[in-house]
Design brief:
By secondary structure, this protein is α/β, with parallel strands linked by helices. The chain has 14 helices and 13 strands.
Length: 349
């Protein structure tokens, strides 16, 4: 069966242009800093995000971890959003590897306010851990691909700076946020001491993420990457696709956003499923199937039997992600499959 695969934008395959760039890439040993293609990608990424330097890492998870390792010490506290990826979905690396104690603060559509950060700060007292970093996620995956605006960023960063905290942005999908907000990615990165973005999601690269920040931060991050086993050699093979991605794959993300919107509006018309249209700001649609009497895993397997792949979030929510290769006709078909499945559910109950 050929599936309509809405499990994630990570399922995207490299474009023909990327494959050609990979085949032609000039290579060297990147642990010696001698891979010209890696160096070029790092420069381009830093320029696009308005930072001094960049570092290619294997994955988003590794990018988040090196950012923490480079800017904090074990035993310190990290302020994180309660539903964030860095806190919930990275095998507890924040604690197991970086040695940090996370403090989870529930955000509004994934965003923390300056006031919340202010309230979470602890008095200087020997009993308490030192709070040293605040982590933001833009777009926020579990909140539904929601964006954090430059104003919201600034508010948090102002408090953070006043109290000597670093600001890390998990920008796995920062270009989705930039496109949705019609802002420059560099504007969204302005207040960040470190920012990680993924090449391997909506930008369609086969692998890789990039961390950006000051030269000094990147030097530390490079050491942390080596510690984690992420010192790659002829990584220009990966970087070549990344250069194409930054040049060619960003603007088209608006198509994914339009498709997600269309999907969400179609789902909203189906009874009795709950979708919060306000949360559908980029390429992710999360909806609650429990009012229809399904558990999310049950519903997902019913969809899969009919040719639609999705992921689940806990017991009751289903997630669909639009991406390159998913066209309007696939969304139309996905809506039919969703409607049929809900129909069967109500017949069977
Ligand atoms: N997200 C993936 C996986 O969790 C399955 C997805 O399909 O959405 N930060 C954010 C906000 C992410 O969404 C992800 C991956 C990561 C970090 C980690 O990136 P990778 O998978 O490259 O380690």
């Amino acid at each position: 069966m050929t599936y309509i695969d809405l499990r994630s934008d990570t399922v995207t395959l490299p474009t023909k242009e990327m494959r050609e760039a990979i085949a032609a890439a000039e290579l060297g040993d990147d642990v010696f800093g001698e891979d010209p293609t890696v160096n070029r990608l790092q420069e381009v990424a830093a320029a696009v995000l308005g930072k001094e330097a960049g570092l290619l890492v294997t994955s988003g998870t590794q990018g988040n971890l090196v950012s923490l390792l480079a800017q904090t010490r074990p035993g310190e506290e990290a302020l994180v959003e309660a539903e964030s990826h860095i806190y919930n979905n990275e095998s507890a690396g924040i604690t197991r590897v970086a040695g940090l104690i996370p403090r989870a603060i529930p955000g509004h559509y994934g965003a923390l306010s300056g006031k919340q950060v202010e309230e979470a700060l602890r008095p200087a007292d020997v009993h308490f851990p030192r709070t040293s970093i605040v982590c933001l996620e833009n777009t926020h995956n579990t909140a539904g691909g929601t964006v954090i605006t430059p104003e919201q960023m600034r508010e948090v960063a102002t408090v953070a700076r006043e109290h000597d905290l670093k600001v890390h942005v998990d920008g796995a999908r920062i270009f989705n946020a930039a496109v949705a907000l019609e802002a420059e990615a560099s504007t969204l990165a302005e207040e960040a001491d470190s920012l990680m973005f993924c090449l391997s999601k909506g930008l369609c690269c086969p692998a890789g993420s990039v961390v950006v920040g000051s030269q000094e931060f990147i030097e530390e991050a490079r050491r942390a990457r080596k510690l984690l086993g992420g010192g790659m050699r002829q990584a220009g093979i990966m970087a070549a696709a990344g250069i194409v991605a930054l040049d060619r794959m960003v603007d088209r993300l608006s198509e994914d956003h339009a498709n997600a919107r269309y999907l969400a509006e179609g789902i909203a018309r189906m009874d009795p499923v709950n979708v919060d249209l306000e949360s559908v700001q980029t390429n992710i649609v999360i909806f609650d199937v429990s009012p229809a009497g399904f558990s999310a895993p049950q519903f997902a397997s019913l969809l899969e039997e009919k040719g639609l792949r999705v992921t689940t979030k806990g017991r009751s929510r289903v997630r669909c992600v639009t991406h390159y290769g998913i066209e309007r006709q696939h969304i139309e078909r996905a809506l039919e499959i969703l409607a049929e499945s809900l129909e069967e559910g109500s017949g069977g109950r």
